[in-house]
Specification:
This protein has five helices and eight strands. By secondary structure, the chain is α+β, with helices and mostly antiparallel strands. The chain folds into two domains: 37 residues; 105 residues, Roll (Nuclear Transport Factor 2, Chain: A), CATH 3.10.450.50. Helix 1 packs antiparallel against helix 2. The chain is globular. The chain starts with a helix and ends with a strand.
Length: 149
């Protein structure tokens, strides 16, 4: 029933709005979000890209998703860093700990505005837990902690 209501709403709003606004633009804005449900899944694509960058151990790819300031914790060192500082710290970590594999164990979303990604990072020197907080499709917090299993 909800699906039928959404389809009707999409059709009605799209045709009404199209009379006042350029049709393709109206279609994009209507389909983008209804009742907090994101039809484009942009945030999930971002987490996939972040996961891929961690798997490759590429700080330069990962930093593309960082906010202007980001909370970084690498093992026992935690600080609020700029993008360039964060990239230098991650690059140093990935050079010391060559990535063998990364497995995302959980991706959860809150109101399509925040996403939390956790996973297990296997490197040449051991295993680490990784947790990432994503707000508005930008990483605001990135943690790499030793895995004490």
């Amino acid at each position: 029933m909800k699906i039928l209501i959404h389809i009707f709403f999409l059709f009605f709003v799209k045709s009404s709005v199209a009379n006042y606004i350029n049709y393709p633009q109206a279609e994009i804005s209507v389909i983008r979000e209804i009742n907090g449900f994101n039809f484009t899944n942009e945030s999930f694509e971002v987490s996939d890209d972040i996961t891929a960058a961690i798997k490759q151990g590429k700080a330069s790819e990962l930093v593309k998703f960082f906010d202007t300031k980001v909370i970084i914790k690498i093992i026992n060192q935690e600080d609020v860093l700029s993008k360039s500082q964060a990239e230098a710290n991650l690059k140093y970590f990935f050079e010391k700990h060559t990535v063998k594999n990364f497995t995302a164990s959980r991706v959860s979303s809150v109101n399509n505005s925040m996403q939390y990604l956790t996973g297990s990072l296997e490197t040449s020197s051991g295993k680490f837990r990784v947790s990432v907080l994503i707000r508005r499709n930008l990483i605001s917090q990135f943690r790499i902690e030793t895995d004490n299993d």
